[in-house]
Amino acid sequence: MLDGVRIAGREGHWRLSAEGGRLALAPSQATGGGVVLPLMADAHVHLDKTYTSARMPGRPATLFDAIEMMGREALNWTESDLRARATLALGRAHAHGTGAMRSHVDWTTPGEPLAWGVLNDLAQDWRGRVELQLASLSPLDLLAEAGEEIARRVARDGGVLGAFVYRNEQLCEKVARVFDLAERHGLSLDFHVDEGLEPEARGLDAITEETGRRGFGGRVLCGHGCALSVRPEYERRAVLDQAGAAGLTLTVLPTTNMWLQDNRPGRTPRLRGLAPFIEARAAGVEILFASDNVRDGFYPHGDYDMADIFRAAVLGAQLEPEDWLGAVTTEAARWCGAVQSLEDGGPADFVWHDAADLDDLVSRPRAARQVWRHGRALEGATP
């Protein structure tokens, strides 16, 4: 099938073949066969919002401008509109080599949002191509009032309970109530937290404290954490040490955060808006990279291509590619409830790149790529 390839995470060159959809690996003396990666996983997206940027009245200057614009846009959503946009997103992700995904779904009133049912149906339709997991996304204050009803429905559908946390009053008490809901209903948690550049934001501190106190390590994912980048060094170090000990995982969203944070018209941004994730990983915090928003009011670009997200993270944070590939493959897949790896005898699902190594892959975004599923190369144009 393929010979002389390099496999991410393995030394030497290899011959790959498939029989009955299972992978067979053998060392090879051939070289120059390209680079093979596991399927990608995108652990933080917003399929309900996607492909709406053309409808926006303008470009937002701040996070809360974007939230307001998307809130108005959501009033026009219909079942067919949601299904069409999300199907396009899933099709493009699949064609680019993504095998698992977690989508947040805005849940801003006690009643179930239309998008929740639509995306649950799509999760069934796409099983075996893109394993889609859903996470509710509610304002922290709403969960304090109507969390029981929301958590019950999320648990019934096998989802993840999520909250937006940013400088809330009675922060610690409200975060504790979210953990109460998770304990009662057997749910994992996914927070949008401290998505701004105000050093007063302390949501990550409260979440870390509860994660450690309740033994929730491995069940709590935090996205963004931008504010931690502008806090004093001694505070940052203390929070990260505690987060590592608690077993917290952080999702970094390079494209959306670098686009929206420190965004002021007519002025070059001074800050990158990224959480201090290199220091976080050194403290024991697992790190994932993900697409976040794609062509909506928060970020008007993107194509659900995790190779692009990986490239943005490598360039934006000056990373060694070999050290961080798991953040968009095996580690990210685990958080989406999937297992995606390259093992002898395992599923013949992988992505081949016409590249000499990961540095070459990052350097040449237009190099040829071929996605293999069940031992066969995908055919046809990207949707």
UniProtKB/TrEMBL annotation:
<dbReference type="GO" id="GO:0006209">
    <property type="term" value="P:cytosine catabolic process"/>
</dbReference>
<dbReference type="InterPro" id="IPR011059">
    <property type="entry name" value="Metal-dep_hydrolase_composite"/>
</dbReference>
<feature type="domain" description="Amidohydrolase 3">
    <location>
        <begin position="172"/>
        <end position="376"/>
    </location>
</feature>
<protein>
    <submittedName>
        <fullName>Amidohydrolase</fullName>
    </submittedName>
</protein>
<dbReference type="InterPro" id="IPR013108">
    <property type="entry name" value="Amidohydro_3"/>
</dbReference>
<dbReference type="GO" id="GO:0004131">
    <property type="term" value="F:cytosine deaminase activity"/>
</dbReference>
<dbReference type="InterPro" id="IPR052349">
    <property type="entry name" value="Metallo-hydrolase_Enzymes"/>
</dbReference>
<dbReference type="InterPro" id="IPR032466">
    <property type="entry name" value="Metal_Hydrolase"/>
</dbReference>
<keyword id="KW-0378">Hydrolase</keyword>
<dbReference type="GO" id="GO:0035888">
    <property type="term" value="F:isoguanine deaminase activity"/>
</dbReference>
<dbReference type="Pfam" id="PF07969">
    <property type="entry name" value="Amidohydro_3"/>
</dbReference>
